[in-house]
Amino acid sequence: MDAPFGLDDETDDDEDELIAEGGAGIRTWYADPLDDPANWGPPLPSPEPPQRSVWELLWPWGVRGVVETVEVLALALLMFLFVRSIGQNFVVDGGSMEPTFHNGEMLIVNKLVYRSFNLAFIGKGEWRPFGQPEPGDVIVFRFPQDPRRDFIKRVIALPGETVEVHAGQVYVNGVARTESYLDKPPAYEYGPVQVPEGQYFVLGDNRNNSYDSHSWGMLGESFMIGRAEVRYWPLAKAGRVDNEAELSATPQAGVLKSP
User: Fold this and answer.
1) Which of 10, 133, 225, 227 has the smallest count of CB within 10 Å of its CB?
2) With b meaning 16 or more CB within 10 Å and e meaning fewer, what string describes 80-115?
3) Alpha-carbon dihedral of residues 152, 154, 156, 157, nearest 10 degrees?
């Protein structure tokens, strides 16, 4: 029987096999049996992803973690240095400031309050944006005779003022000072002496048991660390330091020597 449309019979296996499908008068012919989806067979499995070691898997996260850790540590260091530049904590060691402060009490000292800036390069001289030491300020300073030691005392007289201790009373420019923070008046005599420029006369509140200006002389401003601002230990006495006058004052971890 003749093949339709004048085509030869499909009797030779080497000839292209023609496969007809479709319906409704539409016929599709495949010149190659593999073109027919019916002959495709099951799908091939997906290729396996390349095997990676645990180190290769963790390496990107490890690098990222190291970078983030370094960034956090650098930020923490900058914050620490900034805080330490404006304030520092100290521990009172000794009894020279009793009854105001006792041995072992902990203070925060304002290191910024007396900071000065030299503006000579613009013809302005020294600039003090935060103020300067005032009578009654409780200050922390490096001991002039041994700067490795830190002392805590109270400012009594300023540069240019004349100070005298006589008959249990402190006089500044001839005027007796009222010092309600004292337990006992001083039992020694001193002066009168004028305080040189750039220096201060400081005393401990425990007048008869304090190694201070009446013993070793005036305190140069360059030795000052800052003003006592807050007592934070013991908790029962925590609060702002009551500087005898209009005071303001802030912290390096250290021990205050107050012989």
Assistant:
1) 10
2) eeeeeeebbbbebbbbbbbebbeeebbbbbbbebbb
3) 50
66-80 pLDDT, tens digit each = 667 777 777 777 766
46, 53, 85, 96: the catalytic one is: 96
Does the annotation mark 53 as catalytic?
Answer: no
CATH number of 88-257: 2.10.109.10
96 annotated active-site: yes
Are the C-beta atoms of 77 and 198 separated by less than 8 Å?
no
Taking a C-beta distance cutoff of 8 angstroms, is the pair 231, 239 a contact? Answer: yes
Residue in 111, 153, 213, 258 annotated catalytic: 153
CA distance 210 to 96: 5
Q: How many CB atoms lie within 10 A of CB 16?
A: 12
* Residue with token string 């009222």: 178
Q: Is the pTM of this model over 0.70?
A: no
